[in-house]
Prior knowledge:
Porin; mainly beta; single chain; elongated
Amino acid sequence: MRKIYTVLPLALLTIGANANPMFAPNAKNSVTLYVAQGTDKGTLFKLVNPSLWDISPMTMVMAQYSQPSEIFRLPARINFNIVQNIAYESCHGLSFFGGGISWDIALVNWNGFYIGGGIGPYYRDNRDRWVASRLFFGEKFFIGKNIGKKWRGELFTLHFSNGDFTEPNYGFNFFGLGVNYSF
């Protein structure tokens, strides 16, 4: 009986999930450009509570190549990401360049909108006073909308940290916009 209560909410959230909402119909690839503003250091929980955001002088740009997949029969995508964080003013010294892979899953798919999250490992070119390791993890939450036959737009929050493998581990937080093209 417990299994029914666990599976039923997931089934209800993915109404209309026959096609992957993060891709155009029959598309096998997509590219996305994300641009985000830093919302200061802090924990992963800061992502879902905008009242905790404190705009910091950082701009993050991320290019992403994706292919569709499924995770537990839910629409998903596997991504290759290239990230450039540009820090200035009081955050001088926190700039980094990195790359990684990630997996995103769409938990809600309704009427052209989708909501989901993602996670993956990244590697960057330096250490700094916020995160003392080159290896770190990215966690992302997003809300997307199909804005054309091959185009999608996404609002997202993103957190980078090393999972407390090394100290310090204040983490980086971002909020921004992504534009996706499927082909």
